[in-house]
Amino acid sequence: MKSSKRLCGLWSLVILAGLWNCVPSQESFKMGQDLGKQQRWEEAIAFYEKALLEDPKNSDCQAALTKAKQEAAKLHFQKAESMLTQSPNPNVPDLDRVLKEIKIAHDYDPANLAIASLNEKVAQKRQAFIEEIKTLYPLSGTAMENKDWLEALGVLQRITERYPGYEETGDRLVKVKAEGAKRYYQEGMDFVQKEEWPAAAQAFRKVLDLNPNYPDAREWHQKAKANDSADYYLEKGQKADQEKKWDQAIVYIAKALDYDSNNENTARLLEAVKIKASQECFNEAIKFAGEDKLNKAVYKLQKAVEYDPYFKDSPFYKTALGSIGEKLSKRAESFAAEEKYGNALVWLNKLQEIEPERVQLFQTMTTLNDQISRRIKKSIAVFDFSSPSYNPDAGKIVANKLITFLYQKASGDLRIIERENLQSILKELQLGQTGLIDMQTAQQVGKMKGIDIFILGDVLHFKSSTKDNPSQKTVMLKVGANRVKTQNFLEWEAKHPNPTREELKAAPSAYEEQPVYERISYTSGMKKIFSFLEISYKMINTLTGENTFSNTASGKKEEEDSYNDGIPPGAEIAYDPLELPDEIEVLNALTNEKVSEMGLSVLKHFESLQVLYFNEAEQLVKRRKFEEAIEKYTDACYDEKLKRISSPISEKSAQNIQQLITEW
After folding, report:
1. Contact 522/564 with Cβ under 8 angstroms?
2. Tag placement on the chain: N or C end, fewer CB within 10 Å?
3. Distance (Å, rounded) from C-alpha 222 to C-alpha 103?
């Protein structure tokens, strides 16, 4: 039906166009009047305009055209107002259609203030929507990145309300609904596992907000709401109480009390369960203490107080605390006597948990901490290296530089023995003052003085040489000038042997300065300094006497500079002084470079001592040497403390220690 009407309208325009071309001016004017009477104003406008083209001075036609345009503008204006009335909450496409009608009306009647006012009002509203959308769209992306799916959904829906199909809004909505529903469903299932029904209900509600048809979400939402009650948790708590699952019973009954905090029956039940749990744990603590299972005894004693804090004031608790504390102290003393300081510290830590104010506890733990730190600190001593015959001080120089480097760069788990202290040890043991010892003596010194690593070495080459290749060069230098007659004057004089006064006035210049040159010599050359160093060194484990690492550090260093010297003043040659360090400075720079390499190669062996201790502990566990394993796990933790670093090694070591003492 609508198509047939549209076709009729098109045929009408075609017929009118034909008539427009066929009728003369007066007939066009009359045709426009007839169409105006039928309120077909836009068709009438075409005939009025044709009539004016043929008769521009026809004032009646001009007035009729103006009225027709005003009426046509009024129709489009009314249509725009009607569209706004029919769409009280228009979006951007709706406003675009309204603005299209207003533009047609404005083109017909530009002076109409009502049309201009409506155009401004609608355009401002559209612009406000666009600005709002441009602000909201990035926020939707941020919400998606943060996985805040409901926030993203709200923003995208707001954008869609304002501007359907804006950029990638549709694709984003699909993604938000799919991924958001999946995530909130998983959250809901996690809360179900924990029986946290209020949170589960909220999570499944979010799923349904994103996707009302998400599988099982509606059923789980209903179940969560049904279980979100005091009766549910009270029933679960009473069952756990009967099964002596105290933690569960207390949690469930406490949740039931959250629903009605004034329920005296529930409050009394919760208090009764806590007292019952406390007494049960206390009895178990006494039992485990009698069996020397002190770790379990401490745990149960702590749980008894956790369930009933007032139990700490009980004389029964104080008696048990004293007994268990004494057992812990004696066990720690026994381990300390065997130099198993890590094991001793484990049990003193347990004692500190239940009786932190115990006399001498802090001092004892401090002593154990110091002993463990001393135990794991590796002591490194550097002996004077042997020297080549042509430089007897070379070995001492290299050793001193290496000691300085190690002292500056070593981590907290290393102790570098200063040279003066080492010489004092050698003197005490009557080993001479040379600082050079053999392997057997090194082991002897290490065992007696607690030194773990010796660094020994030989300086094989330690020298510098200079090569200078000077040469004498010459330069022609102006040393003065002679006053001689010019060539022009000589020629003039030959032509005028007896010149008159007037001829003399016209004569060319008579004299000129003629420079006098002399050949002067100066020195030029290239000077080079060569330094060469070669050091052989090794690390000795004093416990085993083994050579744990050996290496050779060698290198060359060359410095050179060209120079010009003895250049006389006035010579056009740049002065280039010799700027070169001396042989000692070059050799010293090379020595510093190589000693740094040596030091880093030594320290590399101690970078991961904590890993070494941890791996040793793991092997001891496999061999079921649990006490020795605890010592190594402790060493791993303390090594990281001394280095002031933190890694999973310490956390894992502490966990493994607790696991090893679970049954103790």
Report:
1. yes
2. N
3. 55
